[in-house]
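wait is this the right file?? whatever heres the structure
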């Protein structure tokens, strides 16, 4: 005799509702947890210990799409110089869902030595956690021969010029490495008129076993006050690659002192024109080979002063006589700058 036995479990409708509600809450919790976990801003550094004048890279990551105008970098400006910023975006797909990833890479230069903090950076409605950075004092940057990779030297053609006399300021930049984003200062002084001469001159020089590229830049300088006048140090800052990464270097020359001589008391003329050489030439242009009374003639007077500015050349005045009448025209100036101040 064969007997079949069936066991049946009966679940009430209320129990099914409770199970369905619990399952939906679990799914919703998982979805919300994933969403909350994805929506975040993280900040990381490529290194946590650097030397002064060394560049550090800050990477900001936003795991959501609505980033507004991007990161607010204003809090960084207190302790860092912001050298640059780049951005890229990525999308990842998993089980039919997509996740937006936004990255910003910010190049920073610490302003001081010690422990500084990358403050929280706001992106959209979220912000990152602070990050600490240690900045150490950097030793002088020297090559294997014990020489600096960059030098700046300045000299003048005359240290005791007369008032308004032209002298030549030569600034020589010595480099044994490639410079990036170089920023070279322009000489200026309230008591000096300074004009750059055309064409930098390039040469090569070996110093203590190191070969340097030498770029010479020259300026015409005209002192406008007698007494001691100091030309301030000339400077350059640039990025260079070192064994530890990119580094900012700042180099400057020594200041130059001028002892400007006033106009001698024995000089009694009205116009003062300090010049290496002054020449005056004239020409007369006729409108006819045999001019007659009432014809017009053009009288041209050329004055050349070597090492002088156009405004230094005194005005030339002539008066009409009973034999002729003069009709002066405004003077025309032409400045020719030598290649090397000669």
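ok assuming it is, sequence goes like this
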């Amino acid at each position: 005799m064969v007997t079949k036995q069936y066991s049946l479990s009966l679940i009430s409708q209320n129990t099914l509702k409770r199970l369905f509600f619990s399952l939906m809450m679990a799914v919703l919790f998982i979805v919300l947890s994933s969403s909350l976990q994805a929506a975040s801003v993280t900040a990381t550094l490529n290194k946590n210990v650097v030397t002064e004048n060394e560049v550090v890279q800050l990477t900001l990551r936003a795991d959501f799409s609505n980033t507004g105008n991007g990161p607010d970098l204003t809090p960084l400006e207190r302790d860092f110089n912001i050298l640059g910023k780049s951005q890229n975006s990525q999308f990842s797909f998993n089980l039919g869902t997509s996740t937006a990833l936004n990255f910003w890479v910010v190049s920073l230069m610490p302003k001081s030595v010690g422990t500084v903090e990358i403050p929280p950076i706001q992106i959209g409605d979220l912000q990152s956690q602070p990050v600490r950075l240690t900045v150490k004092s950097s030793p002088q940057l020297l090559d294997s021969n014990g020489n600096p990779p960059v030098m700046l030297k300045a000299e003048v053609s005359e240290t005791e010029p007369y008032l308004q006399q032209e002298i030549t300021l030569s600034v020589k930049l010595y480099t044994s490495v490639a410079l990036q984003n170089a920023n070279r200062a322009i000489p200026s002084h309230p008591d000096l008129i300074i004009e750059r001469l055309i064409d930098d001159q390039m040469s090569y020089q070996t110093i203590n076993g190191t070969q340097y590229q030498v770029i010479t830049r020259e300026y015409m300088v005209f002192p406008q006050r007698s007494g001691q006048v100091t030309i301030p140090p000339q400077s350059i800052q640039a990025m260079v690659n070192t064994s530890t990464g990119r580094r900012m270097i700042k180099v400057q020359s020594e200041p130059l002192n001028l002892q400007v001589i006033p106009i001698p008391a024995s000089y009694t003329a009205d116009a003062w024109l300090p010049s290496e050489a002054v020449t005056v030439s004239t020409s007369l242009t006729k409108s006819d080979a045999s001019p007659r009374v009432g014809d017009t003639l053009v009288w041209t007077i050329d004055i050349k002063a070597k090492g002088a500015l156009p405004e230094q050349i005194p005005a030339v005045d002539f008066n009409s006589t009973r034999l002729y009448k003069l009709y002066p025209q405004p003077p025309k100036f032409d400045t020719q700058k030598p290649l090397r101040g000669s």
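The helical segments are 13-38. so i think its the right one actually
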